[in-house]
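Example (one chain per record):
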Amino acid sequence: MKKNKKNRKGILYSTNPDFEYEYEKSTQQTLPPLEQDLKVSIDKHRAGKTAVIIKGFKGENDDLKILGKLLKQKCGVGGSVKNGEIIIQGNVREKVMEILEKEGYGYKRVGG
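Predicted structure:
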């Protein structure tokens, strides 16, 4: 686990020379791809644009960003990773599901 200032818990400053900072525990361990239960859906976003939303990733935010980057690159589209969701621009749900299957992720198609 990284020990940086952002992970410090509670105390900002201490005059005690023997003081040891307490660090917050890192988030949950990332589950292996087969144990993931991702939900893939299509949604109308800003200005009526279509986007594919992937929810339900269990693990660290860095691993979620890596998966999001992989999906965007393989689909050749833009998107973002926010609030534990991957948002892929365009109506590319079938392609996203093919990529998830090739990578070994467990997923379900949600909605129409």
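Caption: The radius of gyration is 18 Å.
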